[in-house]
Specification:
The protein has helices spanning about 25-45, 55-75, 85-105, 115-140, 145-170, and strands at about 10-15, 20, 110, 175. It is mainly α. It has one domain (about 25-175): Hypothetical Protein Ta1238, Chain: A, CATH 1.20.1200. A two-stranded antiparallel ribbon has the order 1-2. A two-stranded antiparallel ribbon has the order 3-4. It starts with 11 loop residues before the first strand and ends in a 10-residue tail after the last strand.
């Protein structure tokens, strides 16, 4: 079986229910989610050892959900019966965030991406997730989409922030505080 089809050689691609230009906001939205999924896979590969195994499992679940999210955005015409992203997925992320936050030290200042290599890559996931959310919001302003996808992406970026801090904590690395700013959080 050939991996190439040549059907996109003129700048179009297939979406569910039709075709679209490769720079269409729909393709940009789910393409950014695909990019995010690649970074999540990289982050997951860095979570080695028993101390991080539960977090690697969470990231594997998130990778499946990101495929679901991209699939939901690929529909040209609204078909709510086929949507995969649900409010329950977001609620589970919130539970994970709460659990992660219990492990993290109090925070007073903004945190710079870094600490351990794994945490740095997770911060890349957070920033790409924010871009995916922005692209999805833009798509939703021009056509009907599964609104749960926006909520899920919003919460997922919060999850990545908490996760990066927990990874640093478990690895004995300190977060890198942004020292040029005032204390903005109250423990």
């Amino acid at each position: 079986m050939a991996i190439y089809t040549r059907s996109g050689d003129k700048g179009e691609t297939s979406v569910i229910g039709g075709r679209a230009w490769k720079d269409d906001i729909r393709v940009e939205a789910y393409g950014t989610i695909d990019e995010l999924n690649g970074f999540v896979g990289q982050a997951r590969s860095l979570l080695q050892g028993e101390a991080l195994a539960d977090l690697a499992e969470q990231l594997l679940e998130i990778q499946h959900e990101l495929f679901d999210c991209g699939s939901d955005l690929a529909y040209v015409s609204l078909d709510e019966s086929k949507y995969k992203v649900t409010g329950e997925m977001t609620e589970r992320l919130e539970r994970w965030i709460d659990q992660l936050q219990e492990e993290n030290p109090p925070i007073e200042r903004f945190i710079l991406p870094g600490g351990s290599e794994a945490a740095a890559v997770i911060h890349v996931c957070r920033t790409v997730c924010r871009r995916a959310e922005r692209r999805t919001v833009t798509l939703g302003r021009t056509t009907e989409i599964n609104g749960e996808a926006v909520v899920y992406l919003n919460r997922l970026s919060d999850y990545f922030f908490a996760l990066a801090r927990t990874v640093n904590t478990r690895l004995g690395q300190s977060d890198i505080e942004y020292i040029r700013g005032a204390k903005v959080f109250r423990g």
